Model the fold of this input.
Amino acid sequence: MTNTFSVALVDEAREALREVVKETPLQFNRGLSEKYGAKVYLKREDLQAVRSYKLRGAYNRMRSLTADEKKNGIVAASAGNHAQGVAFSCAELQVRGTIFMPRNTPRQKLDRVRALGGDLVSIELSGDTYDEAYAAARKLSDEKGAVFVHPFNDPLVIAGQGTVGAEILEQLKGEQLDVLVVPVGGGGLMSGAGSYVKAKSQTTKVFGAEPAGAPAMAEALKAENPVTLEKIDTFVDGAAVKTVGDLTLSLTKEVAEEVLLIPEGKVCAEMISLYQRDGIVAEPAGALSVAALDDLADKIKDKTVVCVVSGGNNDISRYPEIIERSLVYQGLKHYFMVNFSQRPGALKKFLNEALSPTDDITLFEYTKKNNRENGPALIGIELAKKDDLAPLLKRMDTLGMSYELLEKDSPIFRFLI
Ligand SMILES: Cc1ncc(COP(=O)(O)O)c(C=O)c1O
Done:
């Protein structure tokens, strides 16, 4: 192990965090266990005091501030959950904090930071991604000579996140842990919990789950250096970073078998399953580890598996987008541009002869134009099963219809969802 991580640092953090951090449940999950022929447990960090494990690292770093550092206040940058951990710790330790967050941070997270930090915390909205907020925060902390509480690349933050691993091993009461799956953003949880578990249980295989639209750790592992991604999809807001840390990269390299890339649509489908099957409200980053199980199906058969459900701060206004992305990912929702002849009866023919009784129109945009032969319509169709697409296309072809099935990466498609 490198000198940035030690079991002793985690054990020490565990003692110090007892008063502020909840020991979250490790729950056996019957549905997932049956699905994968494994024994699957969920570590419910969505039930943590600020609804994510990020409190652990933030508090562990901030409890070690000196009196002078406390007087000077701290600066932090966060996509939302670290901010809540920092705000909670500011209130607990009576330290002033300035927290930089991207402008597109979901409102629910901003409201929670304000509620937790009260007058002690001020929020600065800056940039479109975590990394832009980070740059602005670093500038202020340098100017003020204030401590910057890093969300992942700090030994004490990593040790705090490591307490998740310590709890899991204790809660398994000696049962062998075969596979641990953790979400990866900057890599703090992987570094802390992954390293702790590997140190105590060498045979455990640790896997990371990273959003496919923000593969900063996967790319850094390939390049053997933290690389900065030019453009990322910020949908999985908790785990979408452009650059991982040098400490977190070296620890991840040591402990992770692999960092799997999980498509955002799959994350959405898993968020919905977690809710419908288990009543668990996970945020996108919180569902990453469970969404990775399909990719691990062969490796986890008959094994004991723990997935860390890392957070539950989901803004309710995001659900329509989550449902839409999930349907598209599952091949159940499609969009077409259809060029209808403007003769009377063309639409009726489409409805009666192209659509089957279970093909459901969810969007229909059409404006009749005078003096034109044809008029384009934008149509959204939800299918009962993925396999219903081919027969639908065949019926449209047989009717001689002129249409285009919109590709997921086309501009109109991106406008729609
Ligand atoms: C809910 C949730 N899961 C996972 C992550 C990824 O974090 P890490 O930087 O520790 O990899 C974050 C980061 O903020 C998060 O909020």
Q: What stands out?
A: The longest strand covers residues 333-341.
